[in-house]
Design a protein that fits this description.
25% helix, alpha+beta, ten-stranded mixed sheet
């Protein structure tokens, strides 16, 4: 899957709901959440420290979500899109809700079959961040404001490999700073022990 510099990618669940709950009247309907709000998740672990991320409940307020498309693995054919009514994306109390009609092309119908057979069970979204913060105590990045949502995609792998790439590009500096602080603190403790030993002698 191609990774576009500056964009971030996250994977969530993709579902086939009951007919009564459909948002679009089609036999090729899927839905899910591109993200959930205020629910921290682990991005990766480094030297025993879990680095987490959480999407703020208000992160999508004012975000550019104009004519978002649905793809497979963020590339290739457009399988559904907002402008023709085959894709709905709505922020709600849980997160960014996604509903799609996958009836308009052979590729879209093939994807629906793969989802129906549970060959594809996850979806992802591509976005850029406008504002974030970092909690050094909990090692948690909070995304406060999304600048733009580019696409939502059904994905072949439950853990999107580009998640680590985009997260690490933001957190590399934070991780290195924390590592240097930890080393400095350990060195200070060693110096204090040496001084104590010398004073005791």
């Amino acid at each position: 899957m191609p990774v576009v510099p500056g964009r971030e990618y996250r994977a969530m669940s993709l579902l086939l709901p009951t007919a009564a709950n459909k948002r679009i009247d089609t036999d090729f309907y899927v839905e899910g959440y591109a993200t959930t709000f205020n629910q921290p998740y682990v991005l990766f672990e480094e030297e025993g420290v879990q680095y987490k991320e959480v999407i703020d409940r208000n992160a999508l307020v004012g975000a550019d979500m104009s004519d978002v498309i649905m793809q497979y693995d963020h590339r290739g054919n457009v399988l559904a899109r907002q402008s023709n009514g085959t894709l709905i994306i709505v922020p709600d109390l849980t997160g960014l809700f996604v509903a799609a009609d996958l009836s308009k092309s052979v590729a879209a119908r093939n994807l629906h079959e793969e989802i129906s057979n549970q060959l594809i069970t996850k979806m992802s979204w591509a976005f850029t961040v406008a504002e974030e913060s970092y909690d050094r105590v909990t090692h948690t990045r909070r995304i406060l404001r999304i600048k733009k949502v580019y696409d939502v995609s059904a994905v072949s792998l439950p853990a999107n490999p580009s998640t680590d790439i985009s997260a690490r590009s933001w957190l590399d500096g934070v991780i290195e700073a924390e590592r240097q602080e930890r080393l400095a603190a350990e060195a200070a403790v060693r110096r204090a022990k040496k001084i104590r030993i010398l004073l005791e002698v």
